[in-house]
Amino acid sequence: MPIKRQTKAWKRNLFMLLLLVVGASVAMPVYYIFSRTQTIIIEETQSKAINLAAAMSAFLSYNIESYRPVSDAEILVEGSDLERSYLAFNEVFRQVKKQSDATFIYTSKYLDDQTSVFVLDGEDPSSVLFSPFGSRDSMDALELETLVLGVPTVTGLADDSVWGTYLSAYAPIIDNRDKTVVGLVGVDYSKDHMLVRYRRVGWILISSFTFFTLLITLALYVLIITIQDRSGIDELTRLGTKRAMMKSLRMVFNEARKSNYNFVLCMLDVNSFKAINDTYGHPVGDSVLRCIGRALIQATSNTKACFRYGGDEFAVILPETTLLQAQEMKKNMEEEIGAITIPELKGMKISASIGMAEWLPGITVETLIDLADKDLYVQKQKQKKATL
């Protein structure tokens, strides 16, 4: 039915609008939280990298008598004591790397202001990423600062044309016997390592955002629909109010103009209602109105089409119906109303006069109501004459 279709469309549009507004409202703080979380993850990774680098530099400084000869060597002769020391230190670095989540862990020494030389590497020697003893690498400013000044440093995420995007921490290896900087320990964390954490946090935030947005949207939607429904429902009869009737009538009117079909407006007035109130009291009159409301719903099988227009007047909208077809519905309404039994009336029959008007192209809503009212007046006059 057109009313139902337009009601569904209105509710769907309302839900989508609320979803958009709530989503936009929630998206900004979620974006801020995600951005802040990215910063926290980088800061935590920097702290972890610098702590690991400092721990390994302290280990090598403690074993400086074994490490410094390896670091100072130009080459390592196979089978020599220096090679055995190198292999032992490398094994320690491999074990530390396995037990930590660092991407790379290594040591290097100063060659010149642009170049460093690898000494130890925690990578598996069979890996293409392994840096053999004595291999060279370009040196960034913070790495140079650590080697020259002997101070720990840590970078943010930085791009390297060879290694990719990494966060690096450097800690100096100091020979406490003469306070010289022998080299440094480098700890790298790749961007991919942090992306795993970003995605995990992102998934949690997106899931929470989606759930929270839907929850708030549904709550607001239900609240608005409830308020809307209650504002358009007559408390006594539970039918739509005059305001609701006018809204529905205009919806049907607009749909009829687009789809080129007719519809009928019925206006009802309870016969002798004033006499019922005066004789039996208003509580009984209220019972009559409630029963008529139920009778109209029973006759039309459509709660959305029946309205209490005001006082003892009712209205029924019959979409996609001609005046001829509406006669059968009028008969059903009269029968349902006539079947009402209220003990307090002591057998008195309830009846209602029903006026009808058919909408045709060119007729306005106001004209249609006026035509239905006029027909109602005619029907009431007939009813009076019939009772004389």
TrEMBL record:
The cross-references to Gene3D superfamilies, in alphabetical order and at most eight, read: 3.30.70.270
Q: In the UniProt record, does the keyword Membrane occur?
A: yes
Q: Which residues form a coiled coil?
A: none
Q: Kindly state which reaction or reactions the protein catalyses.
A: 2 GTP = 3',3'-c-di-GMP + 2 diphosphate
Give the E.C. number(s).
2.7.7.65
> Pfam family of this protein, just one?
GGDEF
Q: Which InterPro entries match?
A: Diguanylate_Cyclase (IPR050469), GGDEF_dom (IPR000160), Nucleotide_cyclase (IPR029787), Rev_trsase/Diguanyl_cyclase (IPR043128)
The alphabetized UniProt keywords are:
Membrane, Transmembrane, Transmembrane helix
- SUPFAM superfamilies, alphabetized: Nucleotide cyclase (SSF55073)
Keyword Magnesium applies: no
Could you tell me which residue ranges the GGDEF domain spans?
Answer: 261-388
The record ties this protein, via NCBIfam families, to: GGDEF (TIGR00254)
- Protein name, as recorded: diguanylate cyclase
